[in-house]
Design a protein that fits this description.
Elements lengths: L11 H4 L11 H6 L7 H4 L2
Length: 45
Amino acid sequence: GNMWAQTWEGVLDYVIPYPDEPAFDITKKLEEEARYYPTPLDQRR
């Protein structure tokens, strides 16, 4: 892995929290709970 965590390609298989579960995007869940407030910096992607 990279000391500054610029890439996770080499360690992702070792650090993924639930390797047997499909990947998920937590953004939708946070929006549903009204805990996610996008800023202008989030909009630039």
